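2024-03-11 09:14:02 INFO worker-7 job=invfold-0412 stage=load source=structure_tokens
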């Protein structure tokens, strides 16, 4: 059976490809058609447009450690708030990293400099109101823990969902 992998011929995917090059499996024969055709990301987008289709957005999670600064800048407020909440909730236990981006990068080799914390980036870029960031950091982790403790006391069939808490969190925006 053939498994087609979508690594393109660009520099970034070239690094990913280098990690798996030569990997073999008893189940699959791996092929990399975009690399075979010499298509980088721009060539892929151009072909999609030529076919009259919209170019899809990146498919990573909004809290992915691989998000670029431009991708974070493009996120809606609701997802920016969730990033702040996630980092605030994790902060007491962080020992070896600053946040979702792990550690600060200086912007060498064509990369944009950025802090290790997406929250710090969101604040520095003015993507959310600083008072809202401060409130989320100061209050929301405790509110989340209180919700989880309360939910644990309710029989499973009647237990409020995490989605219900997130809806209330997002309504407070």
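2024-03-11 09:14:09 INFO worker-7 stage=emit residues=173
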């Amino acid at each position: 059976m053939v498994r087609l992998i979508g690594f393109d011929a660009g520099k970034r995917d070239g690094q990913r490809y280098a990690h798996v090059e030569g990997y073999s499996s008893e189940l699959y024969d791996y092929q990399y058609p975009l690399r075979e055709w010499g298509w980088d990301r721009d060539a892929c987008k151009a072909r999609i447009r030529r076919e009259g289709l919209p170019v899809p957005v990146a498919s990573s999670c909004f809290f992915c450690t691989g998000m670029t600064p431009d991708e974070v800048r493009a996120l809606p407020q609701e997802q920016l708030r969730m990033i702040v909440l996630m980092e605030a909730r994790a902060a007491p236990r962080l020992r070896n990293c600053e946040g979702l981006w792990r550690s600060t990068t200086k912007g060498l080799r064509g990369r944009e400099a950025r802090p290790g914390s997406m929250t710090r980036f969101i604040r520095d870029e003015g993507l959310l109101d600083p008072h809202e960031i401060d409130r989320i950091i100061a209050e929301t982790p405790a509110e989340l823990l209180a919700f989880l403790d309360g939910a644990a006391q309710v029989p499973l069939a009647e237990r409020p969902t995490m989605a219900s808490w997130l809806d209330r969190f997002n309504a407070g925006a």
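2024-03-11 09:14:09 INFO worker-7 stage=report msg="Helices lie at 11-20, 33-37, 41-50, 69-73, 77-90, 118-125, 130-152, 162-171."
2024-03-11 09:14:10 INFO worker-7 job finished
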